[in-house]
Amino acid sequence: MKVTVSRKAHFNAAHRLYRKDWSMEKNQEVFGKCNNPNFHGHNYELIVSVTGEVDKETGYVIDTKILSDLIKEHIEEAFDHKNLNVDVSEFQDLIPTAEHIAYVIWQKLRVLIASDKDLEVTLYETPRNFVTYKGE
């Protein structure tokens, strides 16, 4: 029996969408107000889902306490109240779009969750704008 277990999390972070190799005019044309040189912030909502076979002994796909602890330690502590462009090494050369943030979160968690489980990350940048990444 395959089941998906999900855990919600939250973090606040600032970012700026821009390319260092583009002019200010080109960045403004492409990214608009998200290109604010003084950055801007979001209250991100994160849903991490793990899908796999239910263990016959424990009844778990993954212990939600373990999943919660992984998210807290590796995502919330790394991203919460941070400037993603400045404080998070993964975004030194990667534009911190919602797409890229979801990808980085997936990469950070993928190595920590058993390889026989599927991992999906859904990241809400706003209540109406969200992305989902399931791996390649």
In CATH, the topology is named: Tetrahydropterin Synthase, Chain A
Relative helix content: 25-40%
Order of helices and strands: EHEHEHHEE
- Mean pLDDT score: 97
Percentage beta strand: 25-35%
- Major beta sheet summary: 5 strands, mixed
- The multimeric state of the shown protein is single chain
Q: What is the level 1 CATH name?
A: Alpha Beta
User: Helix count?
Assistant: 4
- What is the CATH homologous superfamily assignment? 6-pyruvoyl tetrahydropterin synthase/QueD
Q: Low-confidence parts, pLDDT < 50 over ≥5 residues?
A: none
Cα gyration radius (Å): 17 Å
Question: In one word, what is the shape?
Answer: elongated
- Spatial separation of the terminal alpha carbons: 24 Å
| CATH second-level architecture | 2-Layer Sandwich
Summarize the structure.
This protein is elongated. It has helices at about 25-30, 65-80, 85, 100-110, and strands at about 1-15, 40-55, 80-85, 120-125, 130-135.
For the structure shown, list the relevant keywords:
136 residues, alpha+beta, Tetrahydropterin Synthase, Chain A, five-stranded mixed beta sheet, 30% strand
Overview of the molecule:
By secondary structure, the protein is α+β, with helices and mostly antiparallel strands. The protein has one domain: Tetrahydropterin Synthase, Chain A. The chain is 30% helix and 30% strand. A 5-stranded mixed sheet has the order 3-1-2-4-5. Strand 4 (118-124) and strand 5 (130-133) form a beta hairpin. The longest helix is centred in the middle third of the chain and has 16 residues, at 64-79. The protein is elongated, with a radius of gyration of 17 Å. The protein starts with a strand and ends with a strand. The mean pLDDT is 97.
